[in-house]
Amino acid sequence: MHHEPNFFENLRAEMSGWRVWVDRSIVLGYAVAAGLFVVGFTMASDWAFGLFHRLYETHAWTVLLWTPSVTAGIVWAARRWFPGAAGSGIPQIKAALHPALPPEQRGLFASLRLALAKIALGVAGFMAGMSIGREGPSVQVAAGVMQHARRWLSPNSTINIHALLVAGGAAGIAAAFNAPLAGVVFAIEELSGRIEARTSGVIITGIVLAGLVAVSTFGNLSYFGVIRAPQLGWNALGPGLLVTLISGAAGGLFARLLIASLTGAPQRMNRWRARWPVRFAAAAGVIVALIGLVTGGVTFGAGSEAVKHMLAGHDELTPLYTLLKFVATWLTAWCGVPGGIFAPSLSIGAGIGDGIASLSGAGLGPALIAMGMAGFLAAVTQAPLTAFIIVMEMVDGHSMVLSLMACALLASLVSRMISRPLYDTLAEHMVNSANVVGPADHRPVLPPKESTPEKG
Q1: Is residue 163 part of a domain?
Q2: Is the overall model pTM greater than 0.85, yes or no?
Q3: Is 27 a domain residue?
Q4: Do 162 and 207 belong together in one domain?
Q5: No. of H helices and E strands in the chain?
Q6: Do 299 and 413 fall into the same domain?
Q7: In a domain, 54, yes or no
Q8: Burial of 389 by CB count in 10 Å (0-12 exposed, 13-18 middle, 19+ buried)?
Q9: What is the spatial distance between Cα 122 and Cα 128, in angstroms, rounded to a whole number?
């Protein structure tokens, strides 16, 4: 038989456990620190890409030397000292949460040391002009900071390392996108599958705190701008469905390419990458620089400026440029530069939507751009709710809520027919590699045959 809760008894029980409140305060303090780390990473990345952009504007052709040189240096440093910092950052946190990973090996994927390395190498990636975002790295940075709180908690604390990693990863998304709701959904949909009731309050509060740190610094704005979508009618059904199907198929293909590239599939190019990883990175840097020159600099970096121009009515990413952005992002991820794919995916999706809008000619540009962003991101990550909420945060008003949700869900379904889940597959590959290589070798994110750094 259930009894009504007694307010005063419950209050006395809560206040008597002083150590519980100390633990909660420690976690929330680390959540603020995680938000500050992400804010610092954001500001440093913007500064670094600003330097690259000035170099490109004043001496455009020098990027053919600058980009491959810096890219090769990043990959060499990552493989030599920080192998767990390579790539996006989301697969690393999913690997750290994987039940098959021995607890003593979690530090190979999430630690304060890796968080600092991720910031430094990620900033260098922006300085090189590679096609990367900072959202995936922000997940690993914030999780690396949050897991450090465990050493200060009481031995009997209900807040375990799993909860801290989930909270940190979600806080990274919340702070990177200025979207706490997206962080909570990301924690449930992508990182955990659930949030335990006994720690949910502290975890969600930590996510919100990290997001508030970013909002207080940058304001309640998305760096992709605000999408002012028109009221949609039946005339948007055909173009919207076309955007959804194309973005779903393209996102599924992108995820499949990344899986084949990053899991060391037995192909000639991957054998070359395994044997000469630094040279491969330099060659990829040359191609990315050439693509950037051909497109007038549009494909460099995250692509946020191109999206803002498209929303203002300027065709920054024509269909050809969208395809080249797709290739540049794939090559950047393939060569192992620490950087995310969230922001480039949003810009590619925006290009798909803008291309369909130019054909429809019905004044649907902003709406189709928003749908393309949600559809492509949902297809790549196969996390439709997270993608939908991230884009919804950018839309002025709620006229597109149902359209964005339907687009994300259908695009994700199309992607599942083409590709395995990207982050789950990469995380399993990392766990298997870690179990084969072992903690003493300290090279978990690479297949065993790739574990020896290139000499010279």
Answers
A1: yes
A2: yes
A3: yes
A4: yes
A5: 19, 0
A6: yes
A7: yes
A8: buried
A9: 10
Q: Rounded to whole angstroms, how far apart are CA atoms 402 and 71?
A: 41
- Give the residues across from 427 on adjacent strands: none
From first CA to last CA, the distance across the chain in angstroms is 74
Amino acid at 346: L
Pair (420, 358) in one structural domain: yes
Average pLDDT of the residues in 14-38: 83
**Is 119 in contact with 83 (CB distance < 8 Å)?**
no
Alpha-carbon distance values, 266 to 40, 179, 449, 451 (Å):
39, 40, 11, 16
- Of the candidates 168, 164, 172, 173, the residue with the CA atom closest to the CA atom of residue 196: 164
Specify if 451 maps to a domain: no
**CB within 8 Å of 380: residues ≥ 6 apart:** 251, 254, 255, 341, 345, 415, 422
75 and 209 belong to one structural domain: yes
The predicted-structure confidence for 222-281, as pLDDT tens digits, reads as follows 666 677 776 777 777 889 999 999 999 999 999 999 999 998 766 777 788 888 999 999
Closest CA to 132 of 297, 325, 339, 295: 339
Partners of residue 340 on adjacent β-strands: 133
**pLDDT-derived band of residue 193, with 50, 70 and 90 as boundaries?**
low
Contact 435, 260 (CB under 8 A): no
Q: Are residues 195 and 254 in the same domain?
A: no
- Domains: count for the chain: 2
Query: What CATH number does the domain containing 414 carry?
Result: 1.10.3080.10
Tokens of 422: 């990207």
**Tokens 């170099």 belong to residue:** 55
> Which residues constitute the domain of residue 364?
234-424
201 shares a domain with 118: yes
DSSP assignment string, 8-56:
HHHHHHHHH-HHHHHHHHHHHHHHHHHHHHHHHHHHHHHHHHHHHHHHH
